[in-house]
Write a structure and sequence with these properties.
About 50% of the residues lie in helices and about 10% in strands. It is α/β, with parallel strands linked by helices.
Length: about 160
Amino acid sequence: MEHLSKIYLDTSVINFLYADDSPELKEITIDLFENYIGKNFYKTYISDFVLFEIGKTKDPSKKEKLLKIIEDYKIELLYNDNKDEIIQLGKIYLERGVIPKSSEIDAYHVAYCVICNINYLVSWNYKHLANINKERTIKLINIEHNYINELRIITPLELLSNE
């Protein structure tokens, strides 16, 4: 059986399917979903942190659309028995300042990916996640704490450019 890369979508990627104010990024996101995720090119995951963020969506219609995307594309809910380990690693990222405390859930997205051996964390969040400086610092922290996962933190555009 062919090995599929495992990708984790943070909430920004799902949100950009409806980003009418960013038509170019919306188009790239639609391409990712229709031509890659929808055709099972990747093993695609989210976590309960993504569901939590979607749950905070104020517009009930938009919230329903976001949840329907997860269902329609059969995006799997990532599960790990050791939630304490995920929280602990996320707190290290926050304490070290690699991810600001105001973006706490982003730290847990990263920790989930590291602990569950995900290949790519896909995000449109350039500021806190998808930039090379953050990725390098996270990698150094991971090595320091004996996590050797080669996690890449990239945008949907970078993911599609690699194909």
